[in-house]
Design goal:
Length: 281
């Protein structure tokens, strides 16, 4: 049996009813965040109200700690976060998929990958980000992106390797081994095509995780620096005036939460349940 006829050991499913409805919020929110700078009415660094000014006709969400338009800064602040999260999710998923597939068909590689992943997982994400930020003082967003990739790959490798291990023991892989295929051919031609659902679920979950990691770094001022417009940085900067203008804090917090929830719902709609459970282990 050819590997192309198998999909995670099951026949391909039809799209579930409501999948489009559940993926639409994520697509709309991402498009709105990326197009935000074109929709902003005011420059991100221009005061338009008094500090922590109330919402009004000139500023629909009021002003921040310097009187800048909260809505305009909100529209500018999502593009970089989404771009960073997409980069982290794509790179982590690619690295994890390749390493996991090779680990499944090569016992020696599998043991090496497993030991390295177990060691790397022991490092807490916050500590890892702080260490890299201290070692790379001017790294900014790039340093946080690299840290998120380094910290997220070991866990993702374990997920892919665990999903690929049962496939490595199936009949079509054994037949390929008997025919003389090399390790690289086994991993990329026989194992990888049967992990589409797992890879999709992993990509979605890594994106959500990257949103939280990058946002946490921004809140700690380890990534973007003032006066940049960044959702997490907006929360930190405006927290002292939350009672004067709650929207300066609530709006970016809601944006981060809605982004993570909508992408999670989209992943849930597109990926089969078995793949989601494997990626969450």
């Amino acid at each position: 049996m050819s590997a192309a006829t198998v999909s995670d050991g099951r026949r391909p499913r039809r799209a579930r009813p409501g999948a489009l409805l559940r993926t639409a919020p994520a697509a709309l929110l991402v498009l709105a965040a990326l197009a935000g700078p074109l929709l902003a009415a005011e420059p991100v660094d221009k005061p338009v109200t008094a500090p922590y000014g109330e919402a009004g006709a000139d500023a629909l969400l009021g002003g921040d700690q310097l009187g800048r338009d909260v809505l305009s800064r909100l529209l500018h602040g999502g593009g970089a976060l989404i771009a960073g999260a997409l980069t982290v999710a794509a790179v982590v998923t690619l690295l994890a998929t390749l390493l996991g597939c090779f680990a499944a068909v090569s016992p020696r590689t599998g043991r090496l990958v497993e030991r390295a992943a177990d060691t790397a997982i022991l490092l807490p994400p916050v500590l890892g980000i702080m260490l890299l930020a201290l070692a790379w003082p001017g790294g900014g967003r790039l340093a946080i992106t690299v840290a998120a990739i380094v910290l997220g790959t070991p866990y993702a490798v374990r997920i892919v390797a665990g999903a690929a291990a049962p496939l490595a023991a199936t009949g079509f892989v054994e037949a390929a081994v008997a025919s003389g295929e090399r390790v690289g051919q086994l991993a990329l031609r026989e194992i990888l095509p049967n992990l589409r659902a797992t890879v999709l679920a992993l990509f979605g979950l890594r994106f959500v995780d990257a949103v939280y990691v990058i946002s946490m770094a921004g809140f700690l001022q380890l990534g973007p620096q003032p006066p940049e417009a960044d959702w997490a940085l907006m929360i930190r900067e405006n927290a002292p005036g939350i009672l004067l203008n709650p929207w300066a804090v609530v709006a970016p917090a809601l944006a981060i939460g809605l982004l993570a929830i909508s992408v999670n719902l989209a992943t849930d709609a597109l990926a089969p349940a078995a793949a989601r459970k494997a990626a969450l282990r």
